[in-house]
């Protein structure tokens, strides 16, 4: 995308085309809702609002799915990093319970939208495996299993033997199978949402960076290089790729780079032994790693780190060593694609809802869990603008932005730390 092979990699190479769009050229286009950002949250907002009868304009600075939505692993997860029972402790009983249910139900919303709109995005709703490394990792997933099970979630705790059969490697001490979850081709899903939103009546403009936003009392005036929009509601859905208009959304997030590498397609015999159930996998270390298949049988393998500078060689070599350690039979299987993006991390590992002005709202800080929550939160924002729910009915409370301490140093530290881990370790 934009001619950069390291931005979207395999996803750009295998995604169906986005809707034909171009920059906003019209002056004073009048709509009910202006959405800034064409990722999961913004496009879900546009789709649900347009289906509800609202007029919507989506303004995207680059292309559909340009940010984290088109660069991620493609795991459609239920929940966040925070333990389910910790949500009421962090947010209060009402919001914590509401958010837990929203997150738990979010994957089913994603897969229902895929089915309803016939999206060609490689959706595989066969669950995910959270795999334990060592005894501490096993304790973590055991507690997650206990908590989710108490809330009625279809989760199963696997012992070392069962997780070895499910993954094809003996590297793990156990695993948590979450049947609500699955995998998806994330850029294809974003483009599918875009097609559905346009079909529902939303107007979508790419290469239309918003340069000015003014409160005109009766409406908001948004300006781009070649056009302008008037809207009663404005929803900012740019997350870790937010620009200069709302710097507070960037300043409260620590940007964590995450890369992926995709192998050549595996043989049928290899696929029968490695992830035979087609679940997506991620593990428990702080510098975590993940793997899943695409439709062609490529193993998409990723971890924390940026494919730039010294990190390029370090992470590439680590990926080779790590894959060989997990699956020795893949020692001669080459990587065909490499790419990376940015994850927006918050201090409590939870997303944030901010009121940026009168009828201007933003969800951000997905902490690497944007597909399902972003889709669900977009539906919630649409409901707010349609008068179907109140601000206090949303799954998160409105909170002020708080600048992350030592943001720049911490971002450099995470990138360097991932390089150090990958330079000295294989994987486990």
Overview of this structure, please?
- The chain is α/β, with parallel strands linked by helices.
- The chain has one domain (5-127, 180-424): FAD/NAD(P)-binding domain (3-Layer(bba) Sandwich), CATH 3.50.50.
- 36% of the residues lie in helices and 23% in strands.
- The protein contains twelve helices and 18 strands.
- The protein has helices spanning 5-14, 40-51, 86-91, 93-117, 134-150, 160-167, 186-200, 247-251, 268-273, 310-326, 371-385, 407-424, and strands at 29-36, 56-59, 75-76, 128-132, 155-159, 174-178, 182-183, 203-205, 212-215, 220-223, 228-236, 254-263, 280-283, 289-293, 299-304, 335-345, 352-357, 360-364.
- The strands form three sheets. Strands 1, 2, 8, 9, 10, 11, 17 and 18 form an eight-stranded mixed β-sheet that branches.
- It is globular and about 65 Å long.
- 54% of the residues are buried.
- The mean pLDDT is 96.
């Amino acid at each position: 995308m934009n001619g950069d092979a390291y931005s979207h990699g395999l996803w750009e190479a295998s995604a169906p085309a986005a809707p034909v769009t171009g920059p906003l050229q019209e002056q004073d286009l009048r709509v009910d809702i202006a959405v800034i950002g064409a990722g999961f949250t913004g496009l879900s907002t546009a789709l649900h609002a347009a289906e509800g009868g609202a007029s919507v304009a989506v303004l995207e600075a680059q292309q559909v799915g340009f940010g984290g939505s088109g660069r991620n692993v493609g795991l459609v997860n239920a929940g966040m990093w925070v333990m389910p029972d910790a949500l009421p402790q962090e947010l209060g009983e009402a919001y914590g319970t509401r958010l837990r249910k929203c997150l738990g139900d979010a994957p089913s919303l994603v897969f229902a939208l895929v089915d309803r709109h016939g999206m060609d995005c490689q959706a595989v709703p066969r669950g995910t495996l959270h795999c334990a490394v060592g005894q501490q990792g096993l304790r973590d997933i055991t507690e997650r299993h206990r908590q989710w099970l108490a809330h009625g979630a279809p989760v199963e705790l696997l012992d070392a033997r069962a997780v070895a059969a499910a993954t094809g490697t003996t590297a793990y001490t156990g695993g948590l199978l979450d049947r609500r979850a699955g995998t998806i081709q994330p850029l294809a899903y974003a483009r599918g949402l875009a097609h559905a939103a346009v079909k529902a009546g939303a107007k979508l403009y790419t290469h239309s960076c918003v340069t000015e936003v003014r409160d005109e009392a009766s409406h908001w005036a948004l300006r781009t290089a070649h056009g302008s929009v008037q809207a009663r509601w404005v929803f900012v859905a740019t997350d870790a790729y937010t620009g200069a208009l709302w710097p507070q959304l960037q300043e409260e997030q620590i940007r964590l780079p995450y890369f992926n590498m995709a192998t050549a397609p595996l043989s049928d015999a290899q696929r029968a032994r490695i992830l035979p159930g087609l679940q997506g996998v991620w593990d428990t270390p702080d510098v975590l790693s993940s793997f899943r298949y695409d439709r062609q049988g490529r193993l998409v393998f990723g971890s924390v780190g940026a494919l730039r500078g010294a990190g390029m060689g370090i992470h590439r070599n680590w990926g080779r060593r790590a894959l060989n350690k997990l699956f020795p039979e893949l020692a001669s299987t080459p990587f065909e694609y490499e790419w990376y993006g940015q994850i927006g991390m918050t201090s409590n590992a939870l997303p944030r809802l901010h009121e940026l002005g009168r009828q201007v709202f933003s969800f951000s800080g997905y902490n690497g869990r944007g597909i399902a929550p972003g889709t669900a939160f977009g539906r919630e924002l649409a409901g707010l603008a349609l008068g179907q729910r109140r601000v206090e009915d949303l799954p998160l409370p409105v909170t002020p932005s708080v600048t992350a301490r030592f943001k720049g140093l911490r971002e450099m530290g995470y990138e360097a730390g991932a390089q150090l881990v990958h330079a000295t370790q294989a994987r486990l």
